[in-house]
Amino acid sequence: MSRRTTNHPDPKNVTQRHYARQGIITEEMKFVAEQEGLEPEFIRHEVAHGKMIIPANINHTNLEPIGIGIASRTKVNANIGNSALRSNIAEELGKLCVAIRWGADTVMDLSTGGDINKIREAIIANSSVPVGTVPIYQAVAEIDEIENLTADFLLDIIEYQAKQGVDYMTLHCGVLLQYMPLIEKRITGIVSRGGSILAQWMLHHHKQNPLYEHFDRILEICKRYDVSISLGDGLRPGCLADASDEAQFAELEAIGALTEKAWEQDVQVMVEGPGHVPLDQIEMNVRKEQEICHEAPFYVLGPVVTDVAMGYDHISSAIGAAVAAQAGAAMLCYVTPKEHLGLPNAEDVKQGLIAYKIAAHAADVARHRKGARDWDDEMSRARYQFDWEKQFKLTIDPETAKSMRGETLPDDSFKASQYCSMCGPKFCAMRISKSVGNWRAEA
């Protein structure tokens, strides 16, 4: 059931931040407060000060609002969408269902082929979670050559997607012409699709980034529909060697200035973070974003902590994601096993989400989020009581847990036995502990 604020006294500005700064607690804020176990006034305060966003396009009518911010639970995004080589609406809706089933807090439609508008329309209509996009993908998909892209056409795409109900958009506004020479020092150049597209366009025309030049026009669109801006890290590092370099931090400085500019118009903003970062540099990256971008919510891709785990990058990146979230990142963009290899299928979506839900929950426990560890404590009690059905109910992936236990203890004996096949009844430490009774040794 969606909760929506329907009375908009100023149709030119309907953003959650606009209401929050006027002291108004919206229905969306109340809903987020209930979900987070926080007071509505606290949610309003966080939104008003830019520390939390509630992506909630007024045209996404079946939305269940969420809060993304350092004071809320760590959120996880799942990327779906087709490629230029493979287009199927039914398959994308299947991925959407899998993403929501396994706990995605938001989804991004990154489609680059087929009837992109119809795919997005179907995803928004069927999604109860916020939907994000990268508008420049569609803009480039609909023209012959990147060099033929115009600012007006790109802005038209942004407004069309806003009218459809897109809740947040990744816009690489901080990729500036003067930063291009900094890329020459890198091993992997620019690995962001949006960033590379804009770099090619700027170097061809010898002009500044149109998203940067026309940022005021973008803000006008965002205000009319309440589209949150995710300021994209188009110059993010694509390998460990390029992490925390001059290009990355130059873009971050530009993003910090754009954050303040968006806030002046009451547009909600979060900031995207780096992709490949050594483990020891992650906390520094989060702290730097918080300082330069004035504590706007930080949305990180991974980060991937080693470059040699092809096929397992959902694991290598989940390690970095947990560290980033503990340090203060507000939302994690999942990585699937297919990262660097191909378009993920439904099973890849599931595996990526499970890895990231584990990372997000671990960070919430470490950050002492209200009620976060209650889940773990309940599982621990069920484990000590050998209550297998309750353990299955509490675990992140009950089907896999049941299957693994059933493989080693067949014929349904696994449901009642007070041990597992790792130790058996004689060597089960918890079974022995329960039999001890009195833990005070007599001298």
Question: What descriptive keywords fit this protein?
Answer:
about 450 residues; alpha/beta; TIM Barrel; 2 domains; two-stranded antiparallel sheet
What do these coordinates show?
The chain is of the alpha/beta class. It folds into two domains: 52-366, Radical SAM ThiC family, central domain (TIM Barrel, Alpha-Beta Barrel); 373-436, no CATH class. The protein has helices at 16-21, 27-36, 40-48, 89-101, 116-126, 135-141, 151-164, 193-205, 210-213, 215-225, 246-264, 282-292, 313-327, 346-366, 372-384, 388-394, 398-408, 424-427, 429-436, and strands at 52-53, 68-69, 75-80, 106-109, 131-133, 168-171, 228-231, 269-273, 298-301, 331-333. It has an eight-stranded parallel barrel, surrounded by six helices. A two-stranded antiparallel sheet has the order 1-2. The longest helix is centred in the last third of the chain and has 21 residues, at 346-366. It starts with 15 loop residues before the first helix and ends in a 7-residue tail after the last helix.
